[in-house]
Structures are given as C-alpha cells and as structure tokens.
Specification:
By secondary structure, the chain is mainly alpha-helical. The chain folds into three domains: about 55 residues, no CATH class; about 80 residues; about 160 residues, Intergrase catalytic core (hpI Integrase, Chain A). Helix content is about 50%, strand content about 10%. A three-stranded antiparallel beta sheet has the order 1-2-3, covered by helices on one side. Helix 7 runs parallel beside helix 10 and helix 10 packs antiparallel against helix 11.
Length: about 350
C-alpha cells in the first residue's frame, strides 16, 4: 500500500510505492509539508497509487496479455518511426497463434513451438515473414526472462534461414488497367489510395498513411511532404506529385475529409494479405503492391530517366538497392544494340 513520508530535512512530501515488478520505490511529489492543502493532495495521490497496486495484484501479471501491450508502449510508443505500429501488427498475429494453442504465459513456451509457428504462419505469409515474427517473439521472451516470468528463452537462436527474396512481378499495362477498374468498383478507400500512390509516386504500402496536412497541392509545384514516421529509414522527405495523378489525389483527399479523417487513409494491420486476395479476385495472381514500386523504377529506366533522378524520386540512398528493382524488358532494351559501336566484320 502506497504512503507518504518525510525524507531527511526535505520540505517536499515523498511517496513510497510498488512498481510493476513489485519493488518498493520512493519519489518526491510536487507537494510541500508546510501547506495543508498540499498534504491532502499528496494523501489522495497515495490513495490513487494504492488502488493501482491493488488492481495489479488481482491479475496474473505473467500472462502475455497482461504485460506485453504495455511493455511495447513503454519501450517503443514514444518513437515517431514506423517501429511501434510494425511491432503491434506482429504481436496481433503472434498473439492469435498463442491464444489458439492456449499458451498464456512465457513459462508455457517450448522450443518445438518454432516449427509449429512456421507451419501455421505459412497459411497467410511467406517463410521470411514467419522468421521475422519469431525474432520479435524471441524479444518478448527475453523481456519475460528478465522479469522472472520464465527460466530461459527457448526461442533464442532458432536456427532458421531466410529464403532468397522472390523478385516482385513487374505490372503490365493490362494488369494496371484491370487493377484500377477493380479497385474503383470493389475496392475500399485505403485500397484505392495505396494502389494509386504506388503506381504514380512509387510509394511503399505503409508510407501511404499520410496526414492530410502534408499535401501542399496549392503550391506552384504540388508536393507531398512525407513525415519521418511513415517513411522507411525514418527520414522524411518531399515529393513532387505526378500531374496525371493530381486529379485522382484530390478526389481521394476529398473523400478522406468527408469521412472526418486527418490522414489520407488508415491502413489495416493485414493490408498485404487483403490486397493479395483482392488482386486474386481480379484474376491478377502474382502481383503485389511493392511490385508497383519496381514497375515505376523499371519504366523510369526504360524512359531514359537518369538513375540519380529516379533514386531521388524513390528516396533510395543506395544505388545497389535501387538497381535491385530495375528489370528492363526486351522491349525496353531494343534500342540499345544500335547505340553500341562494334567494328564491322570483313
């Protein structure tokens, strides 16, 4: 039970309390002993803290559901990067797996769960995604070990190897037209946003959750200012808007404002899976959102856009990374032989 106390010659009222780990701690309050009103407020603060401690003792604090969400917020919630949202999405998936198998506490986790999770996750995601999920869960287990909720972390060094990343399918003109027609007729608002931003602006999926205040369309050159929190690498930047995209973008912004939103679109945690299913229904198997980024880079190269300018537009800091996306077609290369000087044969 929390209480207030004197500390040495200090005129400040101190409060003694138990933290989440059950350890007794002391800290100064903002109140003084020489003020009757302050003493009353300090006592109320102690009473409030006592209620928190009592409520904490009524739950099984070692259960994942009781501490993992709070730990994530404490450790990562202050960050302005994409990390907190990414970890919440992963925990949403991992939490479902644990709940289905009635694994409620870290002490119930066993090494053989690695294989079981990979098999389970393959139903909705690829092998590398499953490995990433287990890496995150291992972080959770390490924290549980530090808290004394389990004797050790059985998921440390799972021994899984990532598979080579499959090249993203370059979107054909026919596929782009079919997808646009499908999303306009059947797609939700967020699906339209991520499709068009990927097509015209080479945006990554999560980058499309742009605050409406970041669209400066009335300037001489219409611009999108991406905040650091939505950009991979956490480095915000500005983007000129493709003139062909501008009327579509204005329509999407108007729709978001009509719904009372302050962001262009809210992207669900399972957006990739939903998009894949939507494209399957449109008879566009094999196409994914990130392929739109590869398509933009490839078409830029085919159109003669200098690599440095294409890199700047896509916000790529590395030529090696940028070139991974560039896959020129035979049609795009047909003019190249004539550009190369070869001595005439006798």
């Amino acid at each position: 039970m929390a209480s207030i106390y004197h500390k040495g010659e200090s005129k400040t009222i101190w409060i003694r309390f138990q933290n989440e780990a059950g350890q007794w701690k002391g800290k100064p309050t903002a109140y003084k002993w020489n003020n009757f009103g302050d003493v009353r407020q300090a006592k109320r603060l102690a009473e409030k803290q006592s209620k928190i401690e009592a409520a904490r003792k009524t739950i099984k604090t070692e259960q994942f559901a009781d501490w993992v969400p709070g730990w994530l917020e404490t450790k990562y919630g202050h960050s302005r990067t994409t990390t907190p949202a990414r970890y919440r999405r992963v925990w949403h998936v991992v939490g479902r797996f644990l709940a289905e198998r009635k694994i409620l506490t870290p002490a119930q986790v066993r090494r053989e769960m690695i294989d079981a999770y990979v098999t389970w996750r393959h139903k909705t995601a690829n092998h590398n995604t499953a490995i990433g999920d287990l890496k995150f869960l291992s972080m959770v287990m390490s924290e549980a070990e530090r808290r004394g909720y389990c004797a050790s972390n059985p998921l440390r060094r799972p021994g899984l190897k990532k598979t080579p990343t499959k090249e993203k399918e370059i979107w054909t003109q026919d596929a782009i037209q079919k997808a646009a027609a499908h999303f306009e007729k059947h797609g939700s608002h967020w699906m339209k946003c991520v499709f068009y931003l990927g097509l015209y602006q080479a945006c990554r999926l999560r980058q499309c959750a742009i605050p409406l205040s970041c669209f400066l369309l009335g300037s001489p050159v219409p611009v999108i200012q991406y905040p650091a929190g939505v950009v991979k690498g956490h480095d915000g930047y500005s983007h000129p808007v493709d003139a062909r995209f501008l009327p579509i973008l204005k329509r999407l912004i108007a729709a978001a404002r009509a719904d009372g939103k302050d962001v262009l679109c809210e992207i669900p945690w399972d957006a990739s899976m939903r998009l894949r299913k939507a494209l399957d229904r449109a008879k566009l198997q094999g196409y994914v959102h990130h392929g739109l980024r590869a398509t933009w880079i490839t078409r830029a190269a085919e159109s003669g856009v200098p690599e440095s300018l294409a890199m700047a537009f896509c916000h790529h800091g590395s030529r090696e990374v940028h070139r991974v996306y560039k896959r020129l077609s035979v049609i795009g290369l047909e003019h190249v032989p004539a550009m190369v000087a070869i001595p005439a044969l006798p």
